[in-house]
Amino acid sequence: MLSTYPAIFYEEENGQYSVIFPDLEGLSTFGNDFVYAYNMAIDCLAGHLYSLKNDEEINLPKPSSIKDIDPKAYADSIEYTEYNDSIVNMVSVDVDAYAKEHFEKSVRKSVTISSWLNKEAEEAGINFSKTLQEAIITKSGL
Question: Is the pTM of this model over 0.90?
Answer without folding.
Answer: no
